[in-house]
Amino acid sequence: MSETTLARYYRAVDEDRLDDALAMLDPDVRFTIVLPAGARRGLGRTEMGGYLGARGVSNRAHVVLRQSRDADVEFVYGKVTEGPTTTGRFLSGVRLGADGLIASYQVTFDTDHVLVEDR
Q: How many Å apart are CA 88 and CA 60, to the nearest integer?
């Protein structure tokens, strides 16, 4: 299977290529980001850009362990690292529009639960 749009999105975010990451989103993307501190919901590429920009540059990386695609829906599971330390695991899904842009995005992040071990 070729790399999913979602995996390419995470790579762009991790490489601080936010304009490239945002270009993968529909202008009216709906999103939900569920973190241990609570959920962040939003609408639109501009709002997502504000969220991503406020996170600041770090040595954070999304390490994709599994990815799948079924028609217009993609899923990714992986771990988040800060340097050599794993800070938690994420499970995300997107729905792609007819133009291939991410129209809807949802991610959960947990610091404890491991669904799939590292390869």
A: 11
**Ordered per-residue pLDDT tens for the chain, 119 residues:** 789 999 999 999 999 999 999 999 999 999 999 999 999 999 999 999 999 988 876 789 999 999 999 999 999 999 999 999 999 999 999 999 999 999 999 999 999 999 998 87
Reference 7, options 68, 51, 71, 89; nearest CA is 68
Instruction: Please choose, from the candidates 44, 57, 61, 37, the residue with its C-alpha nearest in 3D space to the C-alpha of residue 104.
Output: 44
| The domain over range 5-110 is classified in CATH as 3.40.50.1820 | no
SS3 66: strand
The whole-model pTM stands at 0.94
